[in-house]
Task: inverse folding
C-alpha cells in the first residue's frame, strides 16, 4: 500500500470512529480491555505492512479508547477536539516540521506568532507578553517558574545562568493548600523542596484567605489559581496581587482551564488576574484543541526568553522563537491547532462555548440538588462537586455510573471525604447529554 492509500485508510478509520462517539461506551468494557493483549507481541524481525499495523490499532485500539472525544465525558476538564483544530493538526503532521524557529519552519513561526497575539487578546492579558506553546500546563509552569526564580535572583545581583543555585540567595515559593499537583510537581522538579514550600490556607470555597497569607518579600514566588480543580473557584486576585507586587514578589497564576472564563460573560471572578507576572493555560481543556497543547505566558517576554534560551552556533534565532520560549528545542508546532481553534470559533464562539458549559453545569447542579444530592461548591464556572447521602453511597454511585458506560466522571476528595466531580467542557456536550447524565444519577441514587 502506498503512502496516499495508507493515509486515506487512516482518515476513513478516524472518520468512522468520530461518527460513532455519541453511541460508544464512554469507558471500554472488560472484553475490549482484555483484547489489548493482542498488542503484546515480540518486536518483529522484518516488520509488518502499514495497513496491518493500522488495522490492529483500529480494531483493538479504538474499542479500548476512552471516548473523551464524545459528548458524555465529564472527567478531568477534558474538551473534545474541535474539528478545525484536529484537521489542522493532521495537515501539520503531514508537513512534519521541526517548529523551533523561522529558519526551520517559516509557516510554523508565522502562524504561532499570530496565535500568541490572539491568545493575549482573547484572555485580555498584557499585550507585550510572550507566549510559549508547550506540551502541558506542567511543562509551561516549569518555564514560567524558572523565569520567575531567575529574575528574582538577578534582582539580588545573582547570575543564575553562570553560578546556578549553590550559594544563591533563597527564593521562597508560596502555594495554596489546594494547589494543583502539577504546580507542586513543577516546583519540586525545580528544586524548591516540598517541605520548604510556604502554604497559604484556603477558605471553604477553596480560595486563598488573604488574612492568612504567609509573609512576602522580594525573594518570593506566589502561585495563585484561576479555577480550583474541584470547585472551579478563583483566588481573590484584586486583594492579593497588588499587595504581592508591592512587596517585589513574583505572581504566577495556574489558569489551566479557569483563565478561559475571561473570554466569556463569566469574567468577573478573574478580575485583577491580568496584573500577575506569568500565567499557564491549556488549549486541550476548555479551548477543545487536540492534546499536547498548552501555553506559558510571561508579562516580561525577555525574562522567559532568557530563561529558556537554547541558541547554538548552528541554530540561532530571535528571542521570541518558540525554542527560546519553551522547554523543547525540537518541537511540533503546537500553536497551529490553537490558532485553528481560535480562527474557527472567533471571539464570539469561544465566549458562547464557555457560557454554555457554565449554564449546563448550573442546571446539572440544580437537577442533582433536587434529587437529594449535596452540591459542595457554588458552581461558579463549569465544575460541579457532588456528594450523596454517605461516603459509601457516593462511591457506589460513581462506580455504578462508570460500569454502565453511559458517561464517565472521576472520584475526588473534598475536605477529607469522598466526592465526585462533574466537569462540563466538551463542545460536543448538548443539553440532552446533561439531561441524560442527571437522569442516570437520579436513578442510581434511588436504587
Result:
Amino acid at each position: 500500500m502506498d503512502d496516499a492509500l495508507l493515509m486515506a485508510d487512516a482518515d476513513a478509520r478516524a472518520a468512522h470512529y468520530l461518527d460513532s462517539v455519541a453511541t460508544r461506551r464512554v469507558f471500554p468494557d472488560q472484553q475490549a480491555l482484555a483484547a489489548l493483549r493482542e498488542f503484546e507481541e515480540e518486536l518483529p524481525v522484518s516488520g509488518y505492512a502499514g495497513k496491518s499495523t493500522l488495522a490492529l490499532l483500529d480494531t483493538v485500539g479504538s474499542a479500548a479508547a476512552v471516548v473523551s472525544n464524545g459528548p458524555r465525558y465529564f472527567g478531568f476538564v477534558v474538551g473534545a477536539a474541535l474539528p478545525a483544530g484536529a484537521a489542522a493538526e493532521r495537515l501539520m503532521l503531514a508537513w512534519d516540521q521541526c517548529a523551533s524557529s523561522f529558519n526551520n519552519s517559516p509557516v510554523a513561526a508565522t502562524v504561532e506568532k499570530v496565535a500568541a497575539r490572539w491568545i493575549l487578546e482573547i484572555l485580555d492579558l498584557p499585550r507585550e507578553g510572550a507566549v510559549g506553546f508547550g506540551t502541558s500546563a506542567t511543562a509551561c509552569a516549569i518555564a514560567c517558574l524558572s523565569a520567575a526564580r531567575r529574575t528574582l535572583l538577578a534582582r539580588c545581583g545573582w547570575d543564575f545562568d553562570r553560578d546556578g543555585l549553590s550559594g544563591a540567595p533563597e527564593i521562597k515559593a508560596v502555594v495554596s493548600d489546594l494547589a494543583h499537583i502539577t504546580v507542586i510537581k513543577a516546583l519540586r522538579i525545580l528544586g524548591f523542596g516540598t517541605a520548604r514550600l510556604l502554604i497559604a490556607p484556603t477558605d471553604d470555597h477553596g480560595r486563598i484567605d488573604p488574612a492568612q497569607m504567609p509573609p512576602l518579600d522580594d525573594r518570593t514566588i506566589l502561585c495563585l489559581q484561576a479555577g480550583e480543580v474541584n470547585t472551579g473557584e478563583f483566588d481573590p486576585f484584586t486583594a492579593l496581587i497588588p499587595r504581592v507586587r508591592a512587596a517585589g514578589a513574583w505572581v504566577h497564576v495556574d489558569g489551566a482551564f479557569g483563565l478561559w472564563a475571561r473570554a466569556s460573560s463569566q469574567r468577573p471572578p478573574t478580575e485583577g488576574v491580568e496584573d500577575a507576572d506569568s500565567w499557564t493555560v491549556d488549549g486541550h481543556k476548555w479551548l477543545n484543541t487536540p492534546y499536547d497543547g498548552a501555553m506559558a505566558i510571561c508579562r516580561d517576554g525577555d525574562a522567559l526568553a532568557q530563561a529558556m534560551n537554547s541558541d547554538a552556533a548552528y541554530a540561532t534565532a530571535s528571542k521570541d522563537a518558540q525554542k527560546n520560549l519553551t522547554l523543547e528545542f525540537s518541537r511540533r508546532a503546537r500553536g497551529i491547532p490553537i490558532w485553528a481553534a481560535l480562527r474557527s470559533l472567533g471571539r464570539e464562539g469561544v465566549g458562547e462555548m464557555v457560557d454554555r458549559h457554565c449554564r449546563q453545569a448550573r442546571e446539572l447542579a440544580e437537577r442533582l440538588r433536587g434529587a437529594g444530592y449535596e452540591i459542595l461548591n457554588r458552581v461558579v464556572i463549569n465544575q460541579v462537586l457532588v456528594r450523596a447521602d454517605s461516603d459509601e453511597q457516593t462511591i457506589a454511585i460513581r462506580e455504578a455510573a462508570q460500569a454502565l458506560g453511559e458517561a464517565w466522571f472521576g472520584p475526588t476528595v473534598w475536605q477529607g471525604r469522598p466526592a465526585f466531580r462533574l466537569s462540563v467542557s466538551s463542545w460536543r456536550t448538548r443539553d440532552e447529554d446533561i439531561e441524560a447524565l442527571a437522569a442516570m444519577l437520579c436513578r442510581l441514587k434511588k436504587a
Notes: The CA atoms of residues 352 and 372 lie 30 Å apart.
